[in-house]
Design goal:
mainly alpha
């Protein structure tokens, strides 16, 4: 998947490390579907400081591209579109904490790398690969 957006090189290493950490901590305790969804929540949180104020379809496509770095297309779609029924009582609170931690990391990256509205103006949403209408899927 050839995805281009301004901050890809900044987010990609964090996404790789996050997947490894989530897998190490949770893989033996929850289902694969739950793990994939936790990963998608972390990616959403991580990218929110830089993309939340931009067009929702762009933010969704960025999340898709980053999740797809680690998951095949069918698992990427499932992780982004469906919230699995928790198999453990703590999974819901863990999801909220993971997304929050992702947002905290995203804010730190934003400060370090000075993401700003100038980058938003430079972003080309047409450069993202899209499968279907992301706005409808994100709703």
């Amino acid at each position: 998947m050839d995805i281009q957006f301004p901050e890809f090189e900044i987010f990609a290493p964090k996404v790789e490390v996050a997947w490894t950490a989530l897998e190490r901590q949770y893989a033996s305790r929850i289902t694969g579907v739950e793990l994939d969804h936790l990963f998608a929540c972390l990616v959403f949180g991580l990218t929110s400081p830089a993309y939340a104020e931009r067009e929702p379809a762009l933010h969704f496509d960025v999340c898709r591209a980053l999740v797809a770095m680690r998951l095949p297309p069918d698992r990427t779609d499932a992780a982004l579109y469906a919230v699995p029924e928790p198999t453990q009582p703590w999974v819901t609170s863990a999801r909220e904490l993971i997304e929050s931690q992702g947002a905290k990391m995203g804010r730190m990256l934003q400060e370090i790398h000075s993401f700003n509205n100038d980058l938003a103006a430079d972003a080309d949403p047409s450069a993202l690969s899209r499968s279907g209408n992301s706005e409808e899927k994100a709703a």
